[in-house]
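REQUEST ID: PR-0412
SUBMITTED BY: lab tech R.K.
PRIORITY: routine
TASK: structure prediction, single protein chain
INPUT:
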Amino acid sequence: MLSVAKRACACCGYLTLDGEGLLSSDGIHFGNFQNCDVCGWEDDYASRRDPNCRGSNGITLVEPQESFARVGAYDERLRHNVRAPRPDEIP
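STATUS: complete
OUTPUT:
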């Protein structure tokens, strides 16, 4: 079976996103709009480039990181739609 490299989610930090993605000229991964199964965050370029930007998720990255630390999801309403990280997703 072919193994696909995983990237870390910008919100929770777990290795849940497929592929290495494209890099910008300053070395930041472009988001590929995948949703993280561990925290629910949608990976987008704007949030990775500037954590204070309101990207495709409609909120800054800073707020969801704090929420994930408290409730295990980027949005408390989604906590029943996410799962714990698997051992291979822990960086």
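NOTES: Residues 1-85 form one domain.
REVIEWED BY: pending
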